């Protein structure tokens, strides 16, 4: 029997990879030869291609509000993917675009944005590339936002995403959001070799403190401005945006979440082969955060 250690310290038993077993039995059909169903398209309809599917029609998201804290590498990447839908996005960040942010395609910013507030530059870029979305720029450090104002932002949102590095503020936002709204917190670990996406759902999952195993005395480690491959950061962002869109669609369309097992709420992403928990190379591993006894947020 093999035991693996997850990055949060938990030891789990290695199970046989069910996908691997299944792929041994299933012939792989190239996509262009796969049968395509066009049954939804009425005869004589306009030649405009409709890319919506029964469970993800972007038009249904029009005007729904998402609040995104942080407009750095992860926050900006998340914004760009969310903005492909006609969402109203509150974007909170108080920093300016610097030359260093343009290196290695780590961020969404361009040379003409240097010196601007990130939220203003992000709004301009989304207006150009994703005009259906509306970005509401807010030049604030989360520390400066009054709790009543922060609560109002959370309450008007269909989902909240935390892409800032300040551990205290991550917990402050997630504590306020826990009872109210679905929340995700993507994190990029040392040199972006791995990352995670923590998901919090009101009264269903454990709170973010319990999920990440943090206490007041032992907070989340800060990871600001660490070197990392932009593709690896993008991998974490990509997973975070897929989870975010699934949460938004499931709420707006009133359907079940189908993209992951919702009894799990912590996704680990490894970008490299790692003997400890990803021996076959880059991969994903899901875990469920446990509500700790005595937690005043999720287990009062
Ligand atoms: Zn808790």
Describe how the helices and strands are arranged.
Elements: E1 3-5, E2 11-13, H1 18-25, E3 65-69, H2 73-82, E4 88-92, H3 118-129, E5 134-138, H4 147-155, E6 159-162, H5 167-177, E7 183-188, E8 194-200, H6 208-212, H7 230-253, E9 266-270, E10 283-287
Parallel strand pairs: 3-4, 3-6, 4-5, 6-7
Antiparallel strand pairs: 1-2, 7-8, 8-9, 9-10
Helix pairs in contact: 2-7
The structure holds zinc ion (ZN).
Q: Which descriptors apply to this entry?
A:
single chain; 300 residues; alpha/beta; Rossmann fold; 8-stranded mixed beta sheet; two-stranded antiparallel sheet
Please give the count of helices: 7
CATH topology: Rossmann fold
Query: Percent of residues in beta strands?
Result: 15-25%
Write down the overall mean pLDDT. Answer: 86
CATH architecture classification: 3-Layer(aba) Sandwich
Outline the low-pLDDT stretches: none
Number of domains: 1
Number of DSSP strand runs: 10
Intertermini distance: 37 Å
Radius of gyration: 20 Å
Helical amount: 25-40%
SS content category:
alpha/beta
**Which descriptor suits the 3D outline?**
globular
Q: What is the ordering of alpha helices and beta strands?
A: EEHEHEHEHEHEEHHEE
């Amino acid at each position: 029997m093999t035991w693996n250690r997850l990055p949060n310290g938990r030891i789990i038993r290695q199970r046989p990879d069910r996908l691997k077993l299944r792929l041994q039995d299933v012939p792989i059909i190239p996509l262009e030869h796969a049968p395509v169903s066009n049954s939804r398209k009425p005869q004589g309809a306009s030649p405009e291609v409709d890319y919506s599917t029964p469970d993800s029609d972007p038009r249904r998201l029009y005007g729904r509000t998402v609040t995104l804290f942080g407009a750095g590498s992860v926050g900006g990447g998340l914004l760009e993917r969310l903005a492909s839908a006609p969402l109203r996005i509150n974007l909170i960040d108080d920093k300016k675009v610097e030359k260093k942010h343009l290196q290695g395609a780590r961020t969404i910013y361009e040379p003409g944005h240097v010196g601007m507030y990130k939220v203003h530059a992000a709004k301009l870029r989304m207006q150009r590339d994703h005009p259906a979305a509306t970005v509401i720029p807010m030049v604030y450090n989360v520390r400066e936002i009054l709790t009543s104002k922060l609560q109002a932002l959370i309450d008007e949102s269909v989902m909240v995403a935390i892409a800032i590095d300040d551990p205290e503020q991550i917990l402050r936002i997630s504590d306020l959001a826990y009872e109210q709204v679905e929340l995700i917190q993507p994190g990029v670990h040392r040199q972006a070799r791995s990352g995670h996406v923590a998901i919090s759902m009101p009264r269903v999952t454990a709170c973010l403190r319990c999920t990440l195993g943090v206490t007041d005395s032992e907070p989340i480690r800060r990871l600001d401005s660490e070197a990392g491959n932009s593709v690896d950061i993008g991998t974490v962002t990509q997973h975070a945006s897929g989870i975010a869109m699934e949460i938004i669609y499931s709420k707006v369309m009133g359907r079940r979440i189908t993209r992951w097992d919702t009894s799990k709420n912590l996704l680990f992403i490894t970008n490299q082969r790692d003997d400890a928990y990803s021996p076959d190379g880059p991969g994903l591993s899901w875990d469920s955060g446990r509500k700790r006894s005595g937690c005043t947020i999720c287990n009062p």
